[in-house]
Amino acid sequence: MQYCRTLIFLVILLYSVLPLSAQQTGGSSSKESDQPEWTPEPDRKTRFGKDEPTVISDGKKQPKITNFLVYGATIGSPGSANLNLGYYYKDIVIRASGMHWRPHWWGGQIDLGYSFWKTPVIAHSISIVAGAFAVDPYAPQVTHGGQNSYPTALDVPGYQHRNPTFEDTIIRSAVANQNPTLETYLEYKSRDNQKVHLSQRYIGLTYDILLGNFFLQVGAGIGQGNYTNPQLLLQMGYVFDTRSSQ
Hints:
Number of strands: 10
Radius of gyration: 43 Å
Structural class: alpha+beta
Shape: rod-shaped
Helix content: 10-25%
């Protein structure tokens, strides 16, 4: 009888201890699974886990940010509608633009600039420019360019100014007394309602933006010619480039 009681007690004790052992074993295994794995390196350094490969590029070639050619067409100064050719070399920008339409309507300009900010999409630069242009507007209004008068199309003393001076008045009176027909002809050739030939040589400073294929240049210039006031330098247009890939 005593033997049976002892056996029953041992069986109950065994069933009580087994679940606790299983829980402890499961807890230790879960802790071990939570620990990061490590792999030895050839240089005897320990590295935990596995590094994911870093993707540096998607394989597509990016456009150049310098050392490329641009060419296209713009409107504005110096020739109203211009051909534009330029080259971006490192931080230096060299550009030429202009057009010749007829003897009294043309323009040309050269630029030397510094590109202070450039990406594959946009380039900013500041340029020193020098150029010249000629125009032949029809009956322009005086003082739009800072001048007091416009020259006439007739290079004859007494008829060279649209607003006759005192000396011009004396000469015209003398011509009218001697030959009224000649005076009428000279008055007609020096009339106000006709084209005026104007020209200007200038230097200036501009700010340039190349945004994709869109080009914009804005600045001011001053020089010698028929315009005494500083002139606005503005041209914009579409240009092609050779920076499609590196």
